[in-house]
Amino acid sequence: MDEGFSGKLKKRRLLNRGARIVSRFMSLTVFSVFALIFIMLFWEAFPLFLKKSLSDILLSTAWMPHSSDYGLYRFIIGSLYTTALALVIAVPLSVLTAIFLSEYLPRKIAMYTKMVFDVLSGVSPVVYGFWGILVIVPLVRGHIQPFCAKHLPWSFFTSTNMSGFSVLSGSIVLALMASPLIVSISEEVLRAVPFEMRQASMALGATRWEMIKKVLIKKAAPGIIAAVILSLSRTIGETMAVLMVAGCHIQETPFSIFDPGYPLPALIANTFGETMSIPLYKSAIFLAAFVLLILTALSNLVGWSILVRIEEEKAS
Amino acid sequence: MKRMKKIEETFFVLLMVASFAALAVGLFSITVTVFMKGLPSLSWQVLTQTPRGGYVMGKEGGILNAILGSIIIGLAATVLSLLYSLPIVFYINIYRFSKSKFSRSVRFFLDLLWGIPSIVYGAFGFAIMILFKLPASMLAGIITLSFLVLPIMARTMDETLRMIPFEMKQAAYSLGATRFEISTKIILKQALPGLLTATLLAFGRGIGDAASVLMTASYTDSLPSSPFAPVATLPLAVFFQLSTPFKEIQERGYAAAFVLTIMMLLVSLAARWMSKGLSKYVVR
Question: Is the dihedral of CA B259, B262, B268, B274 positive or negative?
Answer without folding.
Answer: negative
